[in-house]
Amino acid sequence: MTNRQDIYYWKCDRPSAFFALKDQHEAMDVKEVQALLLPRLIRYFGIDLVQLVPATGQGNHLTFLASAEGVAIFVRLENGPEGDDFMEIEAHVLREIRALGIPVPAVLEVDATRAEVPFAYQILEYLKYPDLNALFKLGKLNITLIARAVGENVARWQSVQPSGFGPFDPEKLRSENALVGLHKTYRDYFLLNWEKHLDFLVLRKFLSQAESDKIQKLVFDHQHYLDIAQGCLVHKDLALWNMLGEAEEIKAFIDWDDTISGDATDDLSLLACFHSGEVVRAALDGYESVAPLPEDFLPRFWLHLLRNMIVKAVIRVGADYFEKESDFFLIGTGSSGATLRDFTKQRIWLACKGLENKKQIRDL
Questions:
Q1: 105, 121, 232, 355: most buried, per Cβ within 10 A?
Q2: Cα-Cα-Cα-Cα dihedral sign, residues 154, 157, 163, 165
Q3: Which uninterrupted H or E stretch holds 339?
Q4: Residue 251 sits in a domain of what CATH number?
Q5: In total, how many domains does the chain have?
């Protein structure tokens, strides 16, 4: 068992960073996984005739579809070398926000103990809808309507206000059945591995040392905005590929495995990692239909956009995303990895200008 005390963001800070992004199918043969999963699924269904096939996806988990007597379920598993047990945390979060009316898959079973199998797994409700990024790339998504719905739901799940900050403590969950962040202050969490991330980007020549120094100074000058007294639930990977649905409706928010107790502007800033000011404005309108925007919204928004873009740059550089083609989920139709690299840099500097009071939401 492990916790995420030293993790700002799992995909770039885990001990075997980029393992799940580049080599996820190498640690254990898929057929071996299927053989180990099948007895658990037979027990779940209560019958022997269970079909189990790999599911398609570009995420950081192995996924399968299982079916028996016309009933289908979705299975996710974590088989990284760290023995991460955050699937238990995620399942708790899904159950809690589902009770609030947030559209998320039902959790049918979860086991992160590795007592019976050498991996953690979840059995989830199977929702037969595409991810919204697939519809977006085809030009079939009403992005303004969807963005408004995103904002509404972000405001709703922020009503969950755990103690502490950052990733949640699995031991506290087991002993107290409560979400408790692993850090005492939000500043401690926000700045965790900050210099390490910037140094990596300098080493890999994505940023110059002078650029890194400028970004460091901007964050230092605005770090007082990190002194928040109470955290709220943050998805932390809010993007269209983590939503299932139709052209004008979100059926489920998925992949809560990076969820934290954090700042109310964080999830909203994540939308700005990908979308225009018009889309972000629609999300803010949706948010404000449920709750007022947080105090000091703009500087906190730009500060979190900058932090999130630095993390995304680390992942994209480390996992060779800039070498991908347009069939990759992050890259738009007709674009390339080079386009993604340019966009990543542009958003970093836009966030910097926002912190300098030189940009507004409409400038995204």
A1: 121
A2: negative
A3: helix 337-355
A4: 3.90.1200.10
A5: 2
Shared-domain flag, residues 52 and 188: no
Sign of CA dihedral 209, 183, 85, 134: negative
- CB contact at 8 A, 254 and 140: no
User: Which tens digits make up the pLDDT trace of 255-305?
Assistant: 999 999 999 999 999 999 999 999 999 999 999 999 999 999 999 999 999
70-98 pLDDT per residue, tens: 899 999 999 888 889 899 999 999 999 99
In this structure, the answer to whether residues 81 and 137 fall within a common structural domain is: no
Crossing angle of helices 194-203/209-221, nearest 10°? Answer: 160
Burial 345-357 (b: 16+ CB within 10 A, else e): eebbebbbebbee
Both tokens of 40, joined, read 């658990």
The SS3 call for residue 286 is helix
Q: Which domain holds residue 292?
A: 132-363
- Helix, strand, coil percentages in the chain from 3-state DSSP, rounded to 5: 45, 15, 40
Number of Cβ within a 10 Å radius of residue 95: 13
What span, in angstroms and rounded, lies between the C-alpha atoms of 361 and 364? 6
Rg (the chain; Cα; Å): 20
CA distance 3 to 181: 11
Q: Which residues contact 104 (CB under 8 A, 6 or more apart)?
A: 94, 97, 98, 252, 253, 254, 256
The predicted model gives 135-146 an average pLDDT of 97
Q: Using CA atoms in the order 230, 225, 243, 150, what is the torsion angle rounded to 10 degrees? A: 90
Q: Choose the final residue of a domain: 91, 125, 159.
A: 125
What single string gives the DSSP state of each residue in 91-106? HHHHHHHHTTT---PP
- Are both 118 and 153 inside the same structural domain? no
Distance CA 135, CA 346 (A): 25
Mean pLDDT of the chain: 92
In the numeric block, which tokens belong to residue 272?
């700005």
Residue with tokens 């071996």: 32
pLDDT category, 17, cuts 50, 70, 90? confident
Torsion (CA) 231, 237, 242, 248 in degrees, nearest 10: 70
Torsion 203-208-210-211 (CA) sign: negative
197: amino acid identity, one letter: H
